[in-house]
Amino acid sequence: KSPAIGGKVKRANLEQVRALPGVTHAFVVPGTEEYNGLLPGVAIVAESLWEARAARDKLEVEWETTHADSTAAYREQADKLVGQTGDILRHDGDVEAAFEKAARVVEARYHYPHVAHANMEPQNCTAMMHEDGRMEIWAPTQNAAAGRGMISELLGLPEEKIHVNQMRMGTAFGRRSRRDFMSETGWIAHKVGKPVQLRWTREDDFAHDFYRPEGWHHIRAGLDENGRMIAWDHHFITLGRDGETISGARLSENHYPAGLVPNFRFRQSIIESRIRTGPWRSPGSSAYCWVFQSFFDEVALAAGRDPLEFRLDLLSNPVGKPPLDLERARNTLKLAAEKAGWGRDPGENRGLGIAFHTSQRGYAAHVAEVEADGKRIKAKKVWSAIDVGPILNLGGAKHQVEGCVIDALSSTLQEMTFENGAAQQSNFNDYTLLRFEQAPEVECHFIQNDIPPTGLGEPPFNPAVPAYANAIFAASGIRVRDLPLQKAGIELA
After folding, report:
1. Residue 442, exposed/middle/buried by CB under 10 A (0-12, 13-18, 19+)?
2. Cys staple from 408: which of 73, 173, 314, 464, with CB 3.0 to 4.6 Å?
3. What's the predicted TM-score (pTM) here?
């Protein structure tokens, strides 16, 4: 496929490729205009994976690209939009009047980049056309029915003639809810009339992901003389297409602290984008939570208040209908703080950070402890308090939380950038994962209750990043407002 998403084939050396050892077919896949489905490209079918890849190395394609989006252009547009009003999506009270009366105003800008799913197992699928006109698919998919529907529409086969065997997955994180790899395999198998197994390379996976989208947040908070928030103004600059936010780029106007601050305004501006995006672990809370919980820390410290006390007070004085269960949120914060010994002196060059969040109807809070040697940071330990209903398999539940925390800390190192519509990162040499020796100890505690069970694979992820970032500030004085951490000169010990 074209390095720039959606690029079409102008010409390719198909005759030479067909003559290579083991190659049985080489042809252009016209694709569709749907970014989420079958993209244009060239298919090479060979007797073995290695022969197919060797032939691909000899393939020469001239592409007709449809866009040249770049990270630099996005950021240039975001800088211009900061000072504009944007579309007001929610306005409670009188925000400007409240800021005029405020004893203190705290203001900050936060940014996070595109990130890739980086599944342990790159996308793969097998398809076979039976002699009676039925198609059978073997796919590690999160969305088998939608995959069958897409193949049916592409090939003109009735859905009842397409059977999908849903296989185990080498992780998903939302990536396997998309059906592009299924549609590719089905289309090729239908054309050649033979069983076909498609296996993406790691480079394919990075180049043609559905990334978590980049975003910019400009937030102001007004405080009264007692250090309580009386005003909140949030300008969210996000990515969209044709004036609507793209997948994974929408933030609800009802997100906290809506209902917790009497004067609340949420504004949005959209930058046009042609990069493919999609659900990415929790699906967007992994980014939004870092922004809000980091800024809460800034506001608490500016008010001279303890970050835990500030959050508990905020969650105890609603002014409307907050989009979360206040008691469950408070309880997770209290439990994590108790287990971590919040308020103690962690020692020289050490700091504690705290954060909470709710997603998938579950609640999670973390306290992180960090050690700093200048800008060299070591995550020592994370205390987790989780409320997702009754826990029956305690070992499995702990593993979920530990995995969320480690994956979250990895995400603070990661960034996908684009130039001329193409991804610039291609493998784990330039897309960093946390190493064993860099991972913290995770101590996990569950609140057992009779609430119907909720998800656990995502809620603990979200507050891990801001707890870690807040601990970095407490230990080093470095406030992280732009991810990845390397932008602040931070190195991991």
Report:
1. buried
2. 464
3. 0.95
